[in-house]
Structure prediction request, 494 residues.
Amino acid sequence: MADPAFLHRVQAGIRLIERGELEQAERLFRQLTEAHPRDAGLWNLLGAAQHKAGRFEEALAACQHALELDRRNPDYLYSVGSILFNLDRPDEAAKKFRATLSARPNHIDALLDLGRSLRDMGDLRQAETIFMRVLQRAPSSQEAYIDLCNLYESQDRNEEAERCFREGIAQLPRPEDLHFFLSLLLLKQGRFAEGWAEYQWRSSRRNELAGAKLPFWTWRETPWSGRLDGQRVAMWPEQGLGDILFFLRFSERVRRLGARTVLYLPRRLVGIVRRAECVDEVSELSDGAGLSRESVLLGDLPFMLASGDETPEPLRLKPLQERLETMRRRLADCGPAPYIGLTWRAGLKTGPQRYQLIKDIPLEDFARAAARLPGTLVAVQRNPEADEVAQLATLAGRPVGDFSDVNADLEDALALMACLDDYVGVSNTNMHLRAGVRPQAHVLVPLPPEWRWMAQGEESPWYRNFSIFRQKYRNDWKEPLEQLINSFENRDFS
Prediction:
C-alpha cells in the first residue's frame, strides 16, 4: 500500500497544476522525483507542470524520461506527442499519437491531435478524415468541429465550413465557441451584420475576457435604439492590445449618441488613448472598478451600435513629441531615409486558435525579400530570438537596425511607427499602432487569414490604405513576398 503522506503530496501537486500554480507544482514534483527517481508517473507530472508553463524543452525531457521508465504507457506517449506538437515538430508528434492509439484505440485526444499534426504536415485530406472520425466517436466534441471547420476554411471551402459550423451549433448543448468561430468566417467574407451578431457569443465568456466577475450589459438584448442621452456607458477591454486598438474606432459613435463614455484600459494604453480624445474619460484598469450593468466590452460595440456594414476608420493616435525626436535621432544613426520597419513573426504558438493566429515567415525567406527593399531596414520584431536580428542582416547581406526594444513601451512603439516611411510585416499590435499614425503599410497575410484582413483582395475595408499580400498556399511565402518587392518598384518616398 502506498504511503498516504506520499499520495497526499502527489494529489496536492496535481491540484496546483489545475489551479495554474505552476512554480509550486514544479518545485513539489522535483522534490518527489529526487526522492523516487524510478517513478515514471512523477516525471510525467513534472513535465505536465513545465508544459503548462510553456517551458516545452524541459517538459519534453521530463516526459521522455517517464517514457524511458515505462515505454508502453499511453499516457506518457501522449504527453511526449503533445509537447512535440507545441514545439512545431508535427511529424514526430504524429508518431507518438499513433503509438498512443495502438495502445489505447479510444484515446480521443490522441486521435484529435493526430489530425492536427497531419494538418500541420500538409496532409489535409488525411487530417479531414481523422477529424471526421473523431466526430463519429465523440459527436459532442466542439474541438473536432472547430478543427474540421477551420480546415475547410483554410482551403477556401467556405460553404462547407459554414455548413459544418451550423451543424455543430445544432448538435452541441454548449456551442458558444462554434458561434464565435462562425462569426470570424462571416466577418472575413464581409457579411458584417450577420458576423457581429454571431461575434456576441464570445461574450458568454465575458468575465473571462475582461478579467472581471461583475455584471455586464446583457449581450442578448437587442442593439441600442435611438439616443443614449444621460446614460453612462463604461467600456472594457478584451483580448489583446491589437483588438483593443481595433475596436476603439467605434467608441466615438457611442458618445455621439449622447452617452457619457468611460473607458477602462491597461496602464500601457491609458496615455495614448487619452490623447486620442475618443471618450469622455479614460481610467486605468483595475479589478471590477466601475463595473455595472451599464458596462460593455469593446468588442460588443459593433453589434450594440447596429453598425451593419459600416467600417469606421482606425482611431487617430498622437505620439509624444519627445519620443518622436528620440526615434528620429535613432533612425538617423542607422542610415539614410527611407526607413522601412520589419516584423516577420506574431501570434500564438499554443492554444485553441493556434492554427488560425500563428503568423511566422521563415527568416531566410523574409531576408531574401528584405535584401531587395529600399532605404534603411529597421527590425521591430517583438521578442526576437538570440542574435535573430543579426542573422537577418547576414542573410539579407545588408545592415538592419535593431529596434526590437521599443516593444517594451507602447509610447516608444507608437513614436517609431509614426517615424517610419513604411512598415512591412505580419499583423501584430504595431500594425494597429501604425494604422493610427500613418496610412502606409504592407501586410503579409497567412492562410487562413485573420478576419480583419478579409478572405481575399489586396485591401481591407478596415485598413483602406494598407496593401495586403496573402498566401495562396499554406506555408508558401514565395509569391506574396515577390509581389511585395514588386510593389516597391519606382516608389517615390519624397
